[in-house]
Structures are given as C-alpha cells and as structure tokens.
C-alpha cells in the first residue's frame, strides 16, 4: 500500500487496484466487470475462465488489508446482461454472504445501464453519481467539477514505461490530474488505456504486488 496526498487530502493506493479513503474508512474500486469472460464465452469467444473468482478474491484481500467499513464501486459492476449466468450469480451470492455486514454502494456506469442493477438479494445500494464523500466527489466518468476533486473510473488507465533501447511495458495505474483522479479497472479480465500525461499529473503504476510512482522520464505516452 502507498499513502499519498492528492489535492491536499490523504488516500491510500492498493496493489489490488483499489483506493482507500482513511478518513471515512471507505474502499473505492472501479470497473469491476463481473461476468465479462462469461459474457464473451456466451458469444462463442474462447477466453479464460475463473476471472470472476479472481476478481472477488482480490476484492476480499483489499477489504481485509484496509479493514474498510464501506465499499463504493465507481461504476460497471456487471459487464453485461449476459453476465447474469447461474455460476456468476452464485459466486456473487457467496461472496456477499461472506461480507454480509459491509455497506456497498454502486454508482451506475455505462455498462450498468445495459446490464441492469445487481440482484436485490445482494443488498447493494445503487444510485447515479456523482456522490460526495468527505472532500471527494465520486463518479464513474472522469469529468471535472467546479467545487471538488473527482475520483472516477471508466477509462481503465494504464501506463507505458520505457527502459533501455525499445523496451516497453504496459501496466495498470492510478492517474491523478489537477482536478480528476482515475482509478485502474479492478476486474481481472479488463484491458488498459494509456492517458496522455499533462504537466502536474501524478501516475502510480501497479507492479510486483506494489504501487510505484512513475517519474516523468519513465513515462511513455504511446505503446510500441
């Protein structure tokens, strides 16, 4: 875990691709995309199995590491309507039973609009953002706000880091701009999108089960 100050406020970045707000004991995750692989397989696309279990295990690890008292999902909890298969819903029900006392809030994202809200039996509060949380404004899409710093998801940020020669590696990252911070996609079966790095932006890559700040000299704005 790495504790950083963003917009004058402290938050903790986790290698599990989550952020923790210590003042409110709130864990934030974005773009969980539960059931994405199952959705692809339903369309006949051969993709790996077991990604829902990986995602839920990672979420349990993040909750345990922070002792969070609340979970907020910044959009895209279920990937699509095809994600509502029996196995996926059973895994979600078991995970929720293991964390029955945890308040969970979902801010609807673009995939949630198509997938529909999670089953009511999961006990997840669902609303449209943005949502105020202490000094932060939580949202799905990373749009700046006039009065508060925004923490969002949606774009699955990644960073391409350059080494010697033409060595390149692409990693999921947290990308904090002057007015908006973007969390990495939490789901195990999600890609990344490299954002341009503007002056004053801070980027934190996730690698080797740790979070590392990326100096400007190691940051590449394009993939090779």
Description:
The chain has 224 residues and is an alpha/beta fold. Helix content is 19%, strand content 32%. The protein is built from 4 helices and 17 strands. The strands form 2 sheets. Strands 8, 9, 10, 11, 12, 13, 14, 15, 16 and 17 form a 10-stranded mixed sheet that branches. Strands 1-2-3-4-5-6-7 form a 7-stranded mixed sheet, with helices on one face. The protein is globular and about 50 Å long. The chain starts with a strand and ends with a strand. The model has no long low-confidence stretch (mean pLDDT 86).
How many β-strand runs? Answer: 17
Helical proportion, percent range: 10-25%
Q: How large a portion of the residues is in β-strands, by DSSP E?
A: 25-35%
Order of helices and strands: EEEEHHEHEHEEEEEEEEEEE
Q: Any idea what the shape is? A: globular
Structural class: alpha/beta
- Low-confidence runs of at least 5 consecutive residues: none
Average pLDDT figure: 86
> Which sheet architecture does the biggest sheet show?
10 strands, mixed
This entry's quaternary arrangement is single chain
Number of helices: 4
Q: Tell me the Rg in angstroms.
A: 17 Å
Distance between the termini: 30 Å
């Amino acid at each position: 875990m790495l504790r950083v100050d963003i917009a004058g406020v402290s938050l903790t970045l986790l290698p599990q691709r989550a952020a923790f707000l210590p003042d409110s004991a709130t864990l934030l995750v974005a773009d969980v995309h539960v059931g994405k692989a199952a959705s692809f397989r339903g369309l006949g696309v051969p993709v790996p199995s077991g990604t829902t279990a990986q995602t839920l295990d990672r979420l349990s690890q993040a909750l345990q590491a922070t002792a969070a008292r609340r979970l907020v999902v910044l959009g895209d909890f279920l990937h699509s309507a095809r994600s509502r298969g029996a196995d996926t819903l059973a895994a979600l029900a078991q995970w929720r039973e293991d964390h029955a006392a945890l308040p969970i809030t979902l801010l609807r994202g673009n995939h949630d609009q198509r997938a529909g809200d999670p089953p009511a039996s999961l006990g997840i509060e669902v609303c449209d953002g943005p949502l105020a949380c202490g000094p932060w404004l939580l949202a799905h899409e990373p749009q700046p706000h006039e009065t508060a710093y925004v923490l969002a998801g949606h774009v699955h940020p990644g960073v391409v880091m350059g080494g010697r020669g033409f060595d390149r590696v692409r990693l999921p990252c947290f990308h904090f701009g002057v007015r908006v911070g973007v969390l990495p996609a939490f789901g195990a079966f999600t890609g990344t999108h490299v954002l341009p790095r503007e002056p004053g932006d801070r980027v934190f890559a996730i690698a080797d089960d740790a979070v590392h700040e990326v100096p400007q000299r190691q940051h590449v704005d394009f993939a090779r």
